[in-house]
Structure prediction request, 583 residues.
Amino acid sequence: MRAQMMTTTREPQEAVGTPAVEIAHLRKTYGALVAVDDVSFSVAQGEIFGILGPNGAGKTTTVECAVGLRSPDSGTIRMMGADPQADRDQVRQIIGVQLQESAFPAKLRVQEILAEFRSFYRHPADVSELVEAFGLADKERAYYRSLSGGQRQRLSVALALIGDPKIAVLDEMTTGLDPQARRDAWGLIEGIRDRGVTIVLVTHFMEEAERLCDRVALIDHGRIVALDTPAGLTARARGGKTVRFLPSAPFDDRLLTGLPGVTRVEHQGQHVVVTGTGELVNAVILALHAAGLEAQDVQLDASTLEDAFVRLTGTHPNQEGEQS
Amino acid sequence: MSSVSVLARPRAPRAAFGQMVLNEARLAWRQPSGIIVGVGISVGLLVLFGEISVFQQSSARLGGLSAFTVYIPILAAFSIGVIALVYLPGPLVAYREQGILRRLSTTPAPAAWVLGAQLVVQACLMVISILLLLIVSIVFFGAGAPKNPGGLILAVLLAIAALFTIGLTVAAVARTSSAARGIMAGAFYPLMFFAGLYYPVQYLPGAFQAVSHATPLGAAVQAMQYAMLQGFPPVAPLLVLAAYALVFGLLAQRFFRWE
Prediction:
């Protein structure tokens, strides 16, 4: 439902005012390496926007430019209308950032780290509420070094929200978490968005993007190769849906290739795989029935965002995940 | 733009710096090697030297001074040197390695504040150590009060500034905290030699004394000793310290990397 609100039929600007994030023609090079090349996208207020892509694709460079840690070679960035370089003080008041691989001093207690970060902001969030929401209430007196990976990650996200930001930028938030902790973190993110915070989420977990994101930008070799809702990307990857079945008798492929919406008919052993769009299953079964045939063992292939990732970037996301 | 311009004062509140100092002080207390070495060793050595009777006898080779008296400013220089060169760059480089400085750069608090907070805490340790050296030597071992307290304060401040900027330059150029420790260990012991820690400078040949007076810790000892025993320190060691502070201050500023 959320995803539908964000489709192209309605301009986000008209719906919710100034875009939270607006990036146009962003380019960033490191020497001869072009890390980000002509990246443009805009994130509406209250949206959860995913940035996906293989390692080294330029995801982190893009968000580092967005939060003002790096200055772009060219292109413009606006965070709630402000330039992260020219208006860096204003931008830092309204963003909360969780960086990859950022640690805190081992011998500080959780409550001391929270107190320090809270003091940076003139209108901070309610710390006890945050601590409660992130399951850190019984860890407030614990040293940072004694926290588990999941607890450190939750603290890091809590610190990103301690300034009550309008935009939260979370880079690989759930990397290194076990599956249960990851699901818990997803719940937290949805809770944050329900408070009206816009979220930019860098991830390589397809399940995470599918579950959380309203829209996803798929970045590869510094360029956006696709920008759509997770469902839209998935559909695009397959060029539609596929129906796989076992026909009761052999038949001429033309029986199906002539149907409206069907784009391809393939044979996998005894099985037939039909790719197409629209009411594919009904169309196929009716056509077979009309020819006196039956379809057995029918499977509608639900293609996933992971398929989209593989197809559009030529790499497998989980391999990438293990490398990082 | 309208959505952010309502925030009238975008910088972090000043109280944030106080919070940083507080946390840096907690870290110094919980990882007390800086306190143990920077304060404990110099005061401990002072007490030890005070108990050795031969150290209390005045010596013609030391210009009529006792070894104990000569060692008070040397131990003060040791405190300043070991804290600034050994205990300042390591944590600072570690903050950079661990991404703490980067993370701070995304908040309204300037990352430079955490560096400032560390300097405040380390400077406090240096001052505590020097005060303890003076109090213990006067109260328990009959040393005289400093002849020129104002000159001593000036010499101490210039020495702290010179050594801090050297420590910060190392933190700026060292890629890793172990590299910082390596550079510092290599620099600290020769500098302490020229400060007279192992052997009073007065015993050394003239050429060595000239080198000593040109080194930061040697000049610091010279200036502090003069202020303790005679009067306002000569200009030469004060200028040497000021020159180090200026040159290394510029180098540190030029080369410091936040990530």
